[in-house]
Design goal:
Length: 132
């Protein structure tokens, strides 16, 4: 089996969706919270780390229904979809790798032991990334 031909398989979060709101409207958390309450949903206390999206709490197993509720309001929302925590995990690991790599790029004259330590950090994160 060729692993490069395997399709990506998301790992969706149960009871959560992501919603992108229209520019201007989505800038006010209070407006978004009021809107979500009118639809019967709540904003998660967790801030989404990968863009200006809101994590909306739903009943587990009813994520698709919640997505339709938000999609039925195109004057307020750009899009809604399931929250893919596998993708978020990959982005987090890749960001860690970029930070360490940037540090190495900016300081290539580090002593060998410090340089090797940073390379080992990258290697450890890559091993975690491969498991996602």
């Amino acid at each position: 089996m060729n692993i490069f031909r395997m399709a990506y398989k998301p790992k969706y979060s149960d009871g959560e969706i992501l919603v992108s709101f229209k520019e201007g409207f989505g800038d006010s958390k209070e407006s978004v919270q009021n809107f979500c309450c009118k639809l019967g949903y709540q904003i998660s206390d967790e801030n989404y780390k990968h863009g200006k999206l809101y994590i909306i709490k739903t009943e587990a197993g009813k994520e698709r229904e919640a997505i339709r509720h938000f999609e039925d309001c195109p004057e307020f929302t750009d899009w809604a979809d399931r929250r893919d925590i596998r993708l978020e995990s990959r982005w987090g690991y890749l960001e860690q790798i970029l930070v360490v790599t940037k540090g190495l790029h900016e300081n290539p004259e580090l002593p060998k032991n410090q340089y090797d330590q940073r390379i080992d950090e990258i290697d450890a994160v890559i091993k975690k990334l491969k498991k996602t």
